[in-house]
Design a protein that fits this description.
This protein is an alpha+beta fold and 291 residues long. It folds into 2 domains: 156 residues, Jelly Rolls (Sandwich), CATH 2.60.120; 108 residues, Arc Repressor Mutant, subunit A (Orthogonal Bundle). The protein has 12 helices and 9 strands. The strands form 2 sheets. It has a 5-stranded antiparallel β-sheet with strand order 1-8-3-6-9. Strands 2-7-4-5 form a 4-stranded antiparallel β-sheet, with no helix packed on it. Helix 6 crosses helix 7 and helix 9 packs across helix 11.
Length: 291
Amino acid sequence: MKASPSIDRLSGILERFRVQAQLHHSGALCGLNHFDACEGHGYLHVLRRGQLKVSHPGARDLPKSMHFDEPTLLLYPRPFTHRFHNAPVEGSDFTCARLHFDGGLYNPLARALPPLIALPLARVSGLDLALELLFAETDRVRCGQRLLVDRIFEVVVIQLIRWLLDHPLEAGVRPGFITGLSDPRLARALVAMHDAPGEPWSVERMSECAGMSRTAFSNTFREVVGQTPADYLNDWRMALAQNRLREGQPIKVLAEELGYANPSALSRAFSAKVGMSPRDWLTKTSVGSDE
């Protein structure tokens, strides 16, 4: 099911929670290559040629090993330990990037995606031109190559997410805002909330955006997204608050931006959701990022 093409379902999210890519490797990978979750990166691997066996040591929600024998894209949106097993000589050909989602584990997009998305390149329409440019840039060194390659990788990520919005079940996406954005009616309400989180969003107003009755909207939203509209709105506001706090935004300004009567009201909502005050949370996350 596809949303109306007149609705931009991604920009409101990506403008607030950027995805940044950094070239990690281009060329053959031979033998065993280890990508440790402790490094704190997500990864985007493009298997250009050859075969690949990837293993997930200790993983509970992914197969212990997987095999690929055609050009394939593998996206690990969150830090996740994985190992590539390739031939010891003349290994398969890869182009890989480290990924950083603004907010880390608190990024709503990274949290909504499964731990791994593995898709044959031929299945994802719209990737051809970006990948052609990506491979052309990584095949030989030219001025500004690294910066350009990083930006192209980010384009590939956006194109992949765009594809996921139209094929969430095929990609194994759990109920959440991605499945919600795949519904043409719910998408209108979700985009409106993403773009204007500080507005007074009653269920009636949300349902009007969706063009549905209040009851039908509430039931459909809960079934497709996995939570009530009010809970989703609260989670979205808290994700924005966390991201903006990390950027140094004062709680007073945040309260006005996110639709709370005063800083105390935002602090109470934050504590109820996160389990600690904004000040304590910011101190904890700042210490954790320095370790």
